[in-house]
């Protein structure tokens, strides 16, 4: 019973997140502002971008692919990872709504996962996801977002009521919470944010904003040994950046915070959940390499409304390695170092311990 209570508490926590409807609301906002359409694009605009949902025979597993590479002359949507803002092009998210309009799936897609599909060729591996159909779901509508070509919708698919997917209950148990970009995606995500900065936010090019442009959006790093923390805005003061989740489109939050080292390598990234939080923060661990001296870090934050910002560079202080206790040498415990079986060693250590105890 206790386990059931814990599980239902956990699912209540997951269900309480507004992350998925907020992401969907922001993609809808981008569709209107950047692609001049108040609805998602459909197959009439081209099959290459359309998500197609199919069910397994038993109706329990759904697969969504993007494009029509399985048709004569068709192509899957290309997946081109790149650190170059002028080249990066991929299906960034695949999403699903149920029969009631609830967002039940939001998957960030790693553009590196489809190596044969970089050059618009048919064949190859289509951008895709697979998931278990939640109980209570009777209809699903697939969506996808392309970083260059906007939000697209595919055909709604009915979940057969003859399957035992629906046997337990009519209430859906679908939960959709925050999911993180895989580290392989980070370079492409950063390149795409630079691309958006140039296209929509900074008329002077892809230069990111800094605290000179305002502290409210600036990410500040603080360090404590091997622990790092980022706060967007003036911690304990004003201004700080808001975190506004919404199911109906009025969304404004810091979507990502990430850390870049002196070589330009991204060492940490987090997509933030704006549900029930008032501050944009992120914690990260510093590797032993970073704390051995010579490392500098800076943070980036991306606001869905106000673009890409970078904070001041911080120098990571070298952390002294903890002193290692001198080991007891075989000679000290009277052991012949030429013959060191494990039994000998254990015996020697026990003898040494007994000798110490007698002192
Ligand atoms: Fe595209
Ligand atoms: Fe903002």
Automatic annotation (TrEMBL):
Secretion signal, residue range per the UniProt entry: 1-16
Alphabetical list of InterPro entries matching this protein: Desulfoferrodoxin_Fe-bd_dom (IPR002742), Desulfoferrodoxin_Fe-bd_dom_sf (IPR036073), Desulfoferrodoxin_SOR (IPR051233)
GO molecular function, one term: oxidoreductase activity
Top-level taxon of origin: Eukaryota
Keywords, in A-Z order: Electron transport, Iron, Metal-binding, Signal, Transport
Domain Desulfoferrodoxin ferrous iron-binding positions: 46-153, 213-311
UniProt-listed SUPFAM superfamilies: Superoxide reductase-like
Pfam families: Desulfoferrodox
Family label: Belongs to the desulfoferrodoxin family.
Name under which the protein is recorded: Desulfoferrodoxin ferrous iron-binding domain-containing protein
Organism: Thalassiosira oceanica (Marine diatom)
